Queue: 2 jobs
Job 1
Amino acid sequence: MAFPSSLKPTSRQYSPGDYPVKTYNANNGAEVRILYGSRPRNMTLELSYSNITDSEANDFLTHYYEMQGTYQTFGIPSSSQTFSGWTAGADNLNLAGTGAVWRYGEPPQQQSVRPGVSTVSVRLIGVQS
Amino acid sequence: MAKIYTGRDGRLLIDGTEQIKVTNWSLTGNLETLETTSLGDSQRTYIPGVQEFSGSATLLYYNDGTNRNDAAAALKKVLKIGAVSESDTVVMRLRLVEGNTNHDVELTTYITSVSIGASVGVVSSAQISFQATGALTAVTI
């Protein structure tokens, strides 16, 4: 199954990462930076879904296992509800502008709130394919 | 027929026994709500969570001449030498009477606080508070 992108998250936090830059500082204070690549890395997307159904929470676990944990990568369409509320176009948030794809940064965190209701937190890392 | 309920219509039963000299009772029900508002929504949305019921009552510290003192019986649920156990629940039935019809709410409770005092010129009474455990067992209100 695909990443459960039909669900609107309760909160979303995106970090655009950085380019592979190495910085050298001379004794006189001068700084030299060397760019080792043309594409950014270490983009992160943290999503939380509060008080969703257990079935919806289970979709995240199923997808995590299908991705073999943090091993395989996947994409999230820019038109999906994952980016709901962001009105500037999702090309940056979904990594389409960087050529990267997502993988799980850690296992999804599932918390049972009450019978049938769960809260799930997901942390994704953007990696270049 | 129109009916306005007052304290004259109120009754309090503890473990099935109608209490004597009750001056007031109150019941509060709460519903916890779980927020489901998500990004892009303009209005907050919720789903129902856990219910909670609690209440309080005041009974005169009164001996009816047969050594029955309902206030003392309620006080002893907390004012006791030994520890309160899980089985120390009391069934509260809060009632409003309309002729032969009873409008009741029944709940299994623990008495969570009691207080009693004596003051010059004031009738001694016991104030009790109770916390329901589990679901309501009867609602005919």
Note: Chain B touches chain A at residues 34-41, 47, 49-50 (CB under 8 Å).
Job 2
Amino acid sequence: MWLRRIATDRIAKRFAPDEALIIAAPVKGALRLSAVNDAAAALGLRAGMPLADARAMHPAIAVAQADERADLALLEAVADWCDRYTPLVGLDAPDGLLLDVTGCAHLFGGETALARDLVRQLGERGLQARAAVAGTVGCAWGVARHSASLPPPERGRSASAASRVGVVASGEERHAIAPLPLTALRLDTDTITALAQVGLKHIADVLDRPRAPLAARFGASFVRRIDQALGLEDEPITPRLPVPAALAEQRFPEPIAHERDVLGTIERLAVRLAHVLEQRGEGARLLQVVLFRADGKVFRLEAGTGAPLREPRLIARLFADRLDVIGDEVDPGFGFDIVRLCALVTERSDPQQTGLATPDHDAELAHLIDRLGARFGLRRVMRQMPQDTHIPEFAVTAVAASASLPSPLRGVRAFTPVFDGERSTAVAQRRRSGWGSEFLLTTASNSHDPPPQPSPATRAFTPVFDGLWGEGARELAVSLDSPFPTRPIRLFARPEPVDATAELPDGPPAQFTWRRVRHIVARAEGPERIAMRWWRDEAGRTLMRDYFRVESRDGVRVWLFHEWPADPHLAPRWFVHGVFA
Amino acid sequence: MLPADMEQLSRLRRAIAKSEALPEETRSLALGVPAIDAALGGGLPGAALHELSATPLHLGVAAGFALALASLAQEAPKERAKETLWIATDFGNLETGALYGPGLDQFGLATDRLLIVRVARPVDALFAMEEALKCRALSAVIAEFGEAPDLTATRRLSLAAKDHGSLGLILRHGSNDAPSAARTRWQIASAPSVPDEFGGLGPTAFSLELTRNRRGPCGTWTLTWDHHERVFAALSLGVAEADRDRPDRETLRTG
């Protein structure tokens, strides 16, 4: 499909229909015409002419500046619109679209009717188009642009849609392209000039010539173009958008505008989609609703799911949520004439035996996650996953709940430091600091049931079951509050600087001022020294932090640290990194 | 399957579900401290909305109390497979810090049974909470609000909690004086902990003030949380500060 005058059509509404309009763009430092409309073409102006020449010929002509980006946006909008004919729409920038109508044409009453409908509808929207249907991309391309049997449409929009449509029957490609000029083969200008120099002007001139000399002289791509046009070489259309695995759609003779109607339609479509998916034994992981507005604008709403889904009621609710959030952006205007529901990504989903009376908690939770995800974004519904690092900020990471599978170790406490090489500094420091943990570790290793050494593969998630360490260790752990250094319940993404004064250079603070409130320290534990990874300060020293658990006289418990080694000339900088319960 | 068959099947399913559905007993969550449980009439009502307030300095403790309640709720026999949902606003996360997985361990809540939703606006938090309260797969829903939700919003949430038998906890920044439809309202602050043998920080200590209780008296208590046994325990009076701010109100105190 060829939009002959896309650049001028885009802005044509601002001008009288019969006014000559040219578009100029800088080419190699000079302003040249990049596009002309029919009226201007009739005045003898051609694309590629210098603007100065055009002005000299017709001083009063309207000139507009080229805007390739806007042209491309228009082409993409048209491509979106063309989705109504086939899900396989490819861009052929700057002014063409490739539609794979295989298997779709009969829905519109045949290839000719489809192409005519396309050209007519685009014409009604002010876009002059020529379309050709052929067995190969190359052939359709050439016929749409250059076929003499498609008379160049007369000025204005008087030409009927029928005259701008060419249909090449299967097997007739050779016959159809033979009379066309060589430019119909999608060749670059250099090749065409070179061919013209040796007197080859039409495709018929080269069709029957031996290939090898042609390839040797004009390049392999030239011969490939011929083969592609004839269908000797395959040329797939690259679709702009992912082709849905399954889709259902509803067309309306009269557009619908109410949200209630749209949602009702989505649910009806979901029933049809569910049938298709059920037959395949699949469920949708990513769903899309495409709303074709009557004036050509297309809206796409997507909703992801955590588990394969095909229950129509749930699908409809997902989109109800989605519409609720972005409802204002989806302006129905004069209404939607096509509503389509696609399953973009599907996954195998075996039928499951559900209880009749007992509620299915997993499914219900999965649906809640999907719905909250549809409204707030799937990445905002998350679980925390422990990471194998001792740096507090990275010890946990948020994983989208829809992406994480239910853990086989459900209900097991997860955060347990593992003493591998990376942690040895932390352990040594902790021992030196006289924390309870040293005592506990000793006890644990002496007990009859020592903690198993985790294998490297599982070490990040080593669970500690209550009672694993034997009774003695457990009792001790209780009295020590925690077998491992206690971590705050809330952590600030950026540690907050505080004013603190310590009695000893390496000791805990005696008081600190945080958010303008002064706290007198009643009790403190620490330091726990945590080394950062490989990064260094300006002097090349490893960065470390000395953490203290501190309780104020009022009972406020915070996690304070100062950076180490501190600059001897400056007072140490203290930060609050978290709050304990 | 033909549509008619599907219809019949779903009708049959409904009929069986109706005849087999067990009446949902109104569960209540015993805190394990006799004085509080007595004031609450046997424990914190399970199918209701409760409001916890704390001033910004004490939000860590308040979060701890909420999570401790959630972990108790997960312990209930019928709730074992269920999860807890925490709804946080972006602003709250910046202002008071985000929930930190390794610290949650202290409250007996496994991170793979805790879902966190981060929303941009308080309105979104209300929506998420109402939807979550309707979900039977959650044992507790906790939402954090910088600004207190109004009476209408809390009434909606309260109804959702009651109708679907779920436990909803609102964590409010500041003190609670605005009208609210919550069943109970608590003011939470941290209390000095009892030092351990080495002079370090002892287990978490809460100072709880029950400021509103629809079915019983109010009171002030100081508790500690033992995360190994997952129980609250009353802190001995020798350490807890006596409360002097509400002389007019009858207080219940643990001995």
Note: The first strand of chain B starts at residue 28 and ends at 29.
